[in-house]
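Sample log: ParB-like N-terminal domain-containing protein.
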Amino acid sequence: MTDTIQTPADTAADKATEVVQTEEFLYLDPADIIIGTNVRTDLRADHKEFRKSIKERGVLEAVTVYRNEDGQYVLLRGQRRTVTAAEVGTPTGLIPARVVPQPADADRIGDQMVENIHRAGMREAEIVAGVEQLALLGVSAAQIAKRTSIDRPTVNAALAVTKADQSRNRLDSGDLTLEEAAIFAEFEHDPEAVERLENAKRWRRSLAHEAQRLRDEAAEREADAAEVERLRAEGLPVLSAEEVEEADEVLRIERLVTEDGEPLPEEEWPNVPGARVHVVKEWVYPEDEYDEESEDGDESEDEDYEPAEPYQQYVPVWVVTDLAASGLRRRGTSGSTSADSSDEGESEEQAEVRREERRRVIANNKAWASAETVRREWLATFVARKTAPKGAEALICEAVVTGHHSLSKAMDHRHPMLFTLLGVDRPTGYYGAGHDECHKIAAKASTPKAATMTTLAAVIAAWEATTGKHSWRNPTAWDARVLGALVEWGYQPSEVERILLGEEPQTSTGSDEPDDEASDDEASDSAA
C-alpha cells in the first residue's frame, strides 16, 4: 500500500505548486531493513513488556526509512522497534514504515538526537486516565496489562487511584507518585491511617512498611472483634475493645481476694458485681514430641530437628473494671483498694522499666511481622531479575567460601525459601523432595549472567529463611551484611529492620521466647 503526498513549493517567486518529493507508506519485513547509523546505541531491547507488546500487537507506530542507491530500505528512526520486531516477530510478520528521501548526514544526526532527547513518556496521571477509560469500557485489569504492556502492579495501582478522589488529585498535582497514591487511596477512608502515612512520607520512611502495619493492625482488630462476638453469642458478658480502652483498670478476678483475704472460687466469678469477660491472647507452646521420642539416645537427626513453633490463642478471662463495686480487693492490702505497686522486691521504677521494655518488645515484634511481608514481596521481584546487581559476586563468594550456616541449611533442605520467592511449588513428603525442581532452576540459568543471578537468589533466600522476630533482638554481622546489600540494591528497610544495620539503639530483653503480649504478672493489675 502506498500513499502519495504532494507538498507546495517553498519559493515565494513561484506561486505554482510542484511535486517536490513523493513519500510512501509501506509494510515491510523488519529483517529486510538495513539498520543504518544511529546516535542511539543502547536499545534496551531486553525490556520484557516491550518485547511482549511487539510480539502480540505488532509495531503500532511506523518506523522511518529511506531507499539507498541499490533500492534497499535503510532505517532512519525506529531502531528499537525494528530490531525487536525482527527478533520476536509480529502477528503479520511485517511492520509499518514511512519511506522518505535520504537526508544529509547532518540532518540525520540532528533529527535522531531531537527524537530521543525530547521524547517524553506518559505522565503517571495520564496512565491512570488511560487505564480508567479502558476499565469503563469493561476491559479487565489482566486485559489492560496485556493490551498496554503495562505491568500488572501498575495497572492495579492506577485502578485503585481512580476510586479515590483525594489521592488522584494529589497525583495530578505531582504531590504523590502513582505508587504512593495507590497506598493513600487504600486508606483514604481512615483519617488516622492517612495521618500515619503522611508522617511516614514526611520523615521519608517507607510507605509500604507503614501500609502493611496498618493492614496487619486492621486484621488483628477484625479477628479480635470476631472472637468477642462469638463469645457474646454464647452468653458471656464480653468487653469490647473500646470498653477495655476506656476502662480505668481491668483486673483479673483470679488475682483478687475477698475481704477475708481468700481467693474467690472460680464458679463464683460470674456472680461478682460488675464482672465481665476480657478476651486476651496467650502463647501456647506445643509439647516437644522429639525429646520424648529420643529418650533412647538416638541423636542422628539433631541437626535437622526444628521444634514446633509456639502460637497464640484467645482466652476469655473474668475481670472487674470497678474494684470497689466488686467487693474484692488486691492481694497484700487490708481492705484498701490502693494498687500493689509492684512484684515483691521490685521498686515502682524498676517495674516501669520492665513494663516499658515489654511494650517495646511487643511493638517491635509486630513491626517485624509486617516488615517481613513487605520484604518478601520485594525479594520475590528482586530474584526474578535477569542480571545480578553490582557487588553480587562478593556476597556470593563470602557466603560460599565461609560456608555460612544459613546457606548450608538451605542446601540440605532443597532451598525451600527460594522456591517460595520464585513462586515454584515444592513437593514434600518424601526423602529428597525438591531435587528435580532445584535441577530445573539451575538448568534454566544457562548463561553466566543468569547463573550469577540464580546463585545470588539462593544466597539471599537462604538468609531470609533464617530471619524472624529474633533477628532484631540479636542481629548478627551476616544480617547486617545481607540487609545492607539489599538496601544498596534498592530495598527501603523499616525502622525495626534498621536495627540489624546498627542504626538504632538496642536493649536486650533477656529472653529468647516470644513476647508479643504482656506477661501474666504484668497483665494482672494493669489496664489493658
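Observation: The two ends are 79 Å apart (CA to CA).
Observation: The chain is about 45% helix and 10% strand.
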